[in-house]
Specification:
With 442 residues, this protein is α/β, with parallel strands linked by helices. The protein is built from 14 helices and 17 strands. The protein folds into three domains: 6-46, no CATH class; 67-272, Rossmann fold (3-Layer(aba) Sandwich), CATH 3.40.50.300; 298-431, no CATH class. The strands form three sheets. The chain has a nine-stranded mixed β-sheet.
Amino acid sequence: MIGTDAAATLDPNQPGRCVIATDTVEPVLCQVASTGESDILEIAARFSGGTAPRRPWLNALPTLVTEADLRRFTVEGVPAPGYPLGVLDEPDSQRYRVFAYAPEIDGHLLVVGGSGSGKSTLLCTIARVAERERGAQIAIELVNADVESTWDALERVSMRIESGQQTTALPRLLLLDDFDSVSARWQPDHRLAAADLLTGLLRDGPAAGVHLVVAVQRLTSAVPGLASLCPSTLLLKLSSVQDHLAAGGLSANYHASLPAGGGVWHNTCVQLLAPVPVQVQLTPLARSTPQLPDHGPLLVVSSSPARTAARLRAVLRVPVVELAGTTGPTASALISVETGQTDAPGRLVVVGDAETWQAHWTLLTRLRGQITSGQTARGRLNGGPASIVFDRCGLSDFRMVSHRRQLPPPLAPGRGRVWVLHPDGDVTRAVLPEPDGSLASG
């Protein structure tokens, strides 16, 4: 180490004795002063009345951040541009700074975080702060993690942009929660179409004044290039460092013990505002799914015809024809309808599965043909044009009977939702009422 064996001659019983070598001087013997406990106590007592040295770092970010904290951390009294959402820790500047999201500056925002990381709270905070600061100057849509609501929001905003109704005169902020979870619950056709709708909004939205905040649990292939289409990314707590790295984070910024609302923004630690007990209206705005059409014949395609027929009899209190029947009153009803001579009182309701409707294609064509031709036979069918109802049917059944390639809107499972193909060709959702007269829960 020092080029000589002088160190070998040092007395091991003499603390502090050493040999020092430099580039210009030969190794020399040196004695380093040693201190004992009494020396340390004496030095501490001598400087006990002095000023404590300033620490070169701040405390860790608080786990609970309120709006009062944001006012304390505003740099030089100048508010940050955008919507204040939390506190940033800037160790290089030895300061805290308000974290604010400005859609016009930061662009679309992608929020990646696991369950309980604070994604939904952040979306509610953005909606609340944006409404408070801009009010009627901006349209805000907070969409919960629901297959129907998310699809409707994407389709509605896309149509507004295509029709020219959406402009920069009234900016729009669309907040989508748990998009990857919603996407996984869609059927493949709806998933692909929704990915196209979202990609179109991310690409064309800013020119029409539309910015999106998309929250996901992890980056998947559901929307190719989602991260690249969102100029800004906020990483919240993730379950593993691999997920953190896959979302574009650095391993040095991963902390498994992050509290809810803790994350990383542009490689800087951030703690988001704590939730406040304020009710934020979700989209769609308290509108209920309509019931079945209350007039005109109902042609029902069901995967369980007998069950659906029994339910409709109990609810509508009218005779329900089961298409699979070939004898008795059922056969007589079918014959009278096919000849266009039914004059039975009440409403015509026919139920069958997709294959049976295919076998009775003449009947379906007659009823649907009377709609488009405007024949006076409508009156004989008690109520006018017929609507086709699809109960617990897949897309293949819908397309086989309707002969349409257009995607119907997705249906939330377990809520009694059905598709209704109206006489004018429009396809909407409806709810089968329960036998007690109430709508299916959901």
